[in-house]
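Chain A, query sequence.
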Amino acid sequence: MPALREPHTLSTLRNRLARAALLVLAPVLIAGCGINNIPTKEERAKAQWAEVQNQYQRRADLIPNLVETVKGYAAQEKSVLTAVTEARASATQVKVDASTLTDPAQFAQYAAAQDKLSGVLGRLMMIQENYPDLKSNQNFLALQSQLEGTENRISVSRRDYNEAVRDYNLEFRKFPNSFWASTVHSGSKPMVMFQANAAAQAAPSVSFSPTAAPAASNLPAAPAQ
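Chain A, predicted structure.
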């Protein structure tokens, strides 16, 4: 009788080993077929979006002090100061969340508000050319430098976001990931990218070059020695 039970024992052992091997190999096989690509790249794109928002917030935080500094030297430039303040308010009032990334209309509203603020900031920074005292104010120079750095960071963060979104959106067009997108990850949708706008996205003029010296004929006579 023991000789009859041994084949059954071996069969049971083989079945258990097969199940164990399947449990070990299943995650590898699933990962290899791309089922995790969409959520992985979606989270990467969201992380890049958070960096875009962080840099826009950094810029918004700089503006009140910048406006107050300029006002101290160029209060008569009321229209520009008001435009900057209103554009900042508009840009910070546009509410965004994860759903904004997949809603072209909401995304366009957010991007337009930020682009408008970039434009009026450029006008504000050009005021310095008419006010030499403002150009030499240490507080203004520090704010100017911070703004220049922030505009550069915004440009970089938008580029990185677009690259992450392009990589993520491509998953919806590749097989078998397109299948997973319509079944397992049906809640995920392609995201919207920032559109290039050279005029609106140009960083404000923050040149540190001195103004041209007045013509010699306009200079006061040198005191007698």
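Residues 37-73 form the longest helix (37 residues). Confidence is low (pLDDT under 50) at residues 21-33, 200-225.
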